[in-house]
Amino acid sequence: MRYISTRGGMAPLAFSDTILMGLAPDGGLALPEHYPQISRAQLDAWRGLSYAELAFEVIRLFATDIPDADLKDIVQRTYTAEVYGSAAITPVKRLHDGLVILELSNGPTLAFKDMAMQFLGNLFEYVLAKKGEQLNILGATSGDTGSAAEYAMRGKQNINVFMLSPDGLMSPFQRAQMYSLQDANIHNIAIRGMFDDCQDIVKAVQNDHAFKARHKIGTVNSINWARIVAQVVYYFKGYFNATASNDEQVSFCVPSGNFGNVCAGHIARQMGLPVQRLIVATNENDVLDEFFRSGRYQPRGTANTWVTSSPSMDISKASNFERFIFDLVGRDGSQVAALWRDVDSGGGFDLAARLPDVCGQFGFVSGKSTHADRLATIRRVDAEDGVVVDTHTADGIKVAREVRLPGETIVCLETALPAKFADTIREALQREAPRPDGFDGLEDLPQRVTVFDADAAQVKAYVEQALA
């Protein structure tokens, strides 16, 4: 399996090379030359596998340059009951109306990002040891990617992490998870601005090819192809857990800001997983919802991005969206490059003529949720099912119920545990969010963070000094 860029300007690379690369040299994102196709016989054989066994079967189709024995060792060390709390790894729970919640937040940082990031930490360490190289990760987070990356990479050989986050805009729990880490290879940088500013700095550094090469800069954002591959696995597992046989179809509802999570669902569907629809749930920052309804993609910029109670989705420029658009326009890299020149210059684009394909061939539909909606959903799910959900998962449940078709089985992807958003849970339920053992007093721990303006030059200078 070889990998190309969404913008058409990169010679095909092996899997291990793409995961260390970050952005492609032409500014695009890596995608396989084709998606592997899953037969009914394979699907039948996979249904009874453990999570680690299934991860091996899915990932080996994409990571063909890693020997099977080595890949099997990586996934078996990653997906364990010790790390995720049970052998099921991603169990499901059913609400009274038949909606299925796929639990993805049982990892060390209580968010779905752990599902891919724990794998990525072990994969990076393996690949770097094989190549005799070092990697300095520069990432951006709107809430959960940062802590998941730092917990996966802390203490890893030959890896440093520089993680950008919007200053003061994550929940106190999210900030404490990241900033309380004292490991020498972890560096937290808070940017005065929004997540989009953080992401723009990461892309600016990625596009400074001399700096990137000199300092071995990589990324763990969903820009990184291995993150997406690892997330494809739980769509297969979620399908198996929510159905009795492979004759059934399901739809997945995915809270989405940066489009990485639902992009993995798109890939699973393209591989042949029996997915009826992919439902994109946004919050008040509804740029993606606007596209799936109108065909118009118009990022709104930092000044017009709302600060909400589902902060991990406070994004108006979805970096992974480019991977879907590449497929939508027939994998025409030159067209994607032209479209993103318009985006990068502050504009957008209109693909309304492609909407029949978006909804038909690719199965996408969308909806949005507001603060009032998520409060009402949290209260309703608690009252009717005795389940407390976080704010982002509430957005997904609200949209799923709004767009559900008769007889449709919808699997809502859990985003995080409610303890990470205690203020909103308290507002909704007038009581404290349930907090897993081991997290008491987290917010009281000493925190270590450096604050900068939204300036790529300052961040590069900080990285250089830290690595000197």
Record the SSE blueprint.
Blueprint: E1 3-5, H1 15-21, E2 30-32, H2 40-46, H3 51-59, H4 68-78, H5 81-84, E3 92-94, E4 100-102, H6 113-131, E5 135-140, H7 145-153, E6 159-166, H8 172-179, E7 186-192, H9 195-206, H10 209-214, E8 217-218, H11 225-242, E9 250-255, H12 260-271, E10 275-282, H13 287-294, E11 296-297, H14 321-328, H15 333-344, E12 349-350, H16 355-359, E13 364-368, H17 371-385, H18 391-403, E14 410-413, H19 422-429, E15 450-453, H20 456-467
Parallel strand pairs: 4-14, 5-6, 5-8, 6-7, 7-15, 9-10, 9-14, 10-13
Antiparallel strand pairs: 1-2, 3-4, 11-12
Helix pairs in contact: 3-4, 3-11, 4-6, 6-7, 6-11, 7-8, 11-12, 17-18, 17-19
Concise structural overview:
This protein is of the alpha/beta class and 468 residues long.
Question: Which secondary-structure class do the elements indicate?
Answer: alpha/beta
What is the count of DSSP helices, taking H or I runs of 4+ residues?
20
State the share of residues found in helices, binned by percent: 40-55%
Biggest pleated sheet: 6 strands, mixed
